[in-house]
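$ ./design --mode recover --in tokens.txt
reading tokens...
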């Protein structure tokens, strides 16, 4: 296969966490349908994640938080992208910025150094906080992407 080809290896599913976890389908706030589209690539111990958050409405959001969790440990030193912060050994969170009704948020680009040089990394992407909105279609904002250490981009 030629280098740079985009292949899709996505498994959509629901993550259920206790406590102050991912945005749920119940709530008393506005309704919004948050989704993420982008790609992931892994090469020589460096993971790149590029995504654009999207809101299919019916209400706009002032901000939301996307969470990126990895199956491998992050290197001790990371350069944070604007609006993003490390949240654990294997986790980064980023604000989306405003998500207008039927519109897109800011482009989010992460270049993450990994502690080891794994042959593959599972990348889990989901909404951590959705601005208090109800999201009845969570199937389009929770992804698992398997990135192989080839430098190829995997779309979600």
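writing sequence...
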């Amino acid at each position: 296969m030629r280098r740079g080809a985009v292949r899709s290896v996505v498994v959509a599913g629901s993550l259920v966490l206790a406590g102050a976890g991912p945005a749920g389908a119940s709530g008393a706030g506005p309704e919004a349908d948050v989704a993420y589209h982008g790609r992931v690539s892994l090469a020589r111990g460096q993971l790149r994640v590029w995504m654009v958050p999207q809101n299919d409405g019916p209400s706009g959001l002032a901000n939301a938080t996307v969470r990126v969790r990895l199956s491998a440990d992050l290197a001790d030193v990371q350069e944070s992208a604007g609006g993003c912060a490390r949240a654990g050994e294997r986790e980064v969170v980023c604000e989306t910025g405003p998500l207008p009704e039927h519109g897109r948020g800011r482009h989010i680009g992460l270049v993450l150094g990994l502690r080891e040089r794994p042959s593959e990394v599972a990348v889990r992407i989901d909404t951590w906080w959705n601005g208090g909105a109800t999201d009845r279609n969570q199937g389009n904002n929770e992804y698992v992407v398997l990135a192989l250490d080839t430098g190829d981009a995997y779309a979600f």
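exit 0
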